[in-house]
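Hi team,

Below is the intake form for Putative reductase from Pseudovibrio axinellae. Please confirm the fields before the structure is written into the shared record.

FORM ID: S-0412
PROTEIN: Putative reductase
ORGANISM: Pseudovibrio axinellae
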Amino acid sequence: MLIVYGIRNCDSVRKACKLLDEYCVDYNFHDYKKAGADESVLSDACERFGWDAVLNKRGTTWRKLDDETKASVTDQDHAIALMVRETSLIKRPLVLCGKQPLLGFNAVLWREILEKGEL
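The structure came back. Fields below:
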């Protein structure tokens, strides 16, 4: 079963879920705000994509962090610990199971993968 990790009110997540629904893909949604972030899932994502890609430094949550906290994120372990505490720092959506792992939403790429049946 495909699992889409994210935050329900995130625009990228909503677009991804809408596209999955359009292609009649069966999936479960894991809402970080309701269910939290699992350290092992984040570890897997960091191994696949790199912790610096999984940690979203472009959003307001990152910008609101104090400089000391930002400076403390020097490796994967520190990044995961911070993302578990601050789930809004995780790039969304995240899909790890299935044939093709995905991080973030790119409509063209997602459509291409869905049309090939590779998700």
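SUMMARY LINE: The longest strand covers residues 2-6.

Thanks, M.
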